[in-house]
Specification:
By secondary structure, the protein is of the alpha/beta class. Helices cover 27% and strands 18% of the residues. The strands form 2 sheets. It has a 9-stranded mixed beta sheet, with helices on both faces. A two-stranded antiparallel ribbon has the order 5-8.
Length: 327
Amino acid sequence: MICNKITVLLSLLLTMACCAEKKSKKQTHIDNKASIAPHIVFVSGDEEYRSEESLPMLAKLAKRELNAKVTVCYALDSTGIINPNNTNHISNLEALETADLMVIFTRYRTLPKKERDYIVNYAESGRPIVGFRTATHAFKYKDPSLEYWNDEWPTKVFGQQWITHHGHFDDGKFPVTRISAIAKEHPILRGFDSFKAYSWLYHVDGGAWKLFGDSKPILRGHSLKSKHEMDGKLDEFPLTNPVAWTKSYTGSSGKKAKVFFTTLGHPYDFKLPVVRKIALNGIFWALDKAHEIPSDGSNVHLDEPFEPNNSGFGTVYKPNLRPRTIH
């Protein structure tokens, strides 16, 4: 009788020890996974909005605030100098194969298939994406067999294609769009206050157009000066439109990706802390780290001055710059 009781007691103790060990191993796995630094790949390549300046700045913030490994991809010429006018090459895109997040700000690229495939394969994998402004027209191919990438692809992935905007009006001299919240409680908007942006308002919803899929707007913009108002076309292109939204994209992998997109992106906008907060909060959210965003938003204090060139085409970008290591 005593032997039976001892046997039962030993069996119970052994079971409890095994459960405790399994729980410990599971917790260790969770802790280790949480401590792994995310790899964020920033893909720049636009000839208008100085993404070659704004994305390295955001990468530096992400490295500091998320302890992230960061890779910045640039449009380079044959000598390795940053040249946003070179639409058929972006460096280091192979880094997307191991990325945990792609942040993309490209415009009308004509990348060869091998380079385009790095971006497309990433999107199809179900991993998260953050996109800025001209990524609604990330590619521009004249070959009819490649037209899918021009409009249909960005609509499915980001929520809309290029349609029109309300006008430049002395680019960079004064703000042209008033920004306010739609979803005030969304974690991406922690620390948000209404402001005026230098980004002229893109039309993405209304008239004959509608944001694609399950897009959920969180910010709106109101154009303060509009060529469409001057032309009497506000029924087609209203003065107020979404400027930021979240959505999902399910590609060939069958896995649903989290997507945050904003049509903000003028270089002078990124001089505003509130815009940097929106961007960095969006990166946290996309990485399933919304719970780590402080109530007043991410820390976006800059360790060095950010003085980008104005937007514009041609040779408005800073000449003779080479990629530099993000510290």
